[in-house]
Amino acid sequence: MSKYEPLREHLARMDDVVWAAKLDEVESIIGSNLPRSAREHRTWWANSGGSLVHQNSWLDAGWRVERTDLNRDVIVFRRLRIGGTSIANQSQRSSRADRNPQKAAEKRLGREMVSLRQPATVTLRAEWTTLGDVQKTPCSHSTIPAEAGVLRFAAMDGDDVKTVMVATHSVQQLYRALRMEMKGMEVGAESRSGHLLIKKSGFDPDKPIECDVVKPGNAWLLTDGRGRKANLDDKTECHLVAQLLYVQELQSGRKSKLLQL
Description:
Layout: H1 5-13, E1 18-22, H2 23-30, H3 36-40, H4 53-59, E2 63-69, E3 74-79, H5 86-98, H6 101-116, E4 122-126, E5 129-133, E6 149-157, E7 160-168, H7 171-182, H8 192-201, E8 210-214, E9 219-223, E10 226-229, H9 235-251, E11 255-259
Helix pairs in contact: 1-4, 1-5, 7-8
């Protein structure tokens, strides 16, 4: 059996039309290293077939190599026909018949783990809404949402700006608590979060504190180029957005803290 038979079987089982495969992923599938020529020469990935068993592995499965990007170690395969050749289909049927459920589960998990172990990039796109100076902007202002969000407070620390990130289930409630603390007003438990914010942040309540907010609908989480709106009503996801914004502050060279109140 050719060493590239697992690649043919993998392609024959796929439901996708296009597969952008990393060379390391191909090696995981065939269970051995590719030859040096596969990493250095595009011609190795041609669609000539004939006596070239490695090329026949994808041609027999009904696929062809559409594009090679050896600088990034990526090969793009495209399906030529649905279901592959009769050889591929027979192999798939016999493989299913011969496998017991335990081995089937092991192989399926092994295939899934190949993609799960690929490097992942999680990024955030967020738009800030300005609330302004906490001393001057009243709690009833129309820009202050009642729902969940991520607040950024900023104040001068010597010649630098220091920021604090806080994820909260109610922006208006936390903002109100901070205003009461800065004005020296105490209204039971309602003002406790404002007291904690001043204490943990190190802000001087007598000096200006600017405030911005990321409101629901203004944050998107992107994983490997695919994105969706962040659900700030979900406590875990709201904290994730706050953490990513905090990292961005640090990368910008600002002093910053991430607080949980």
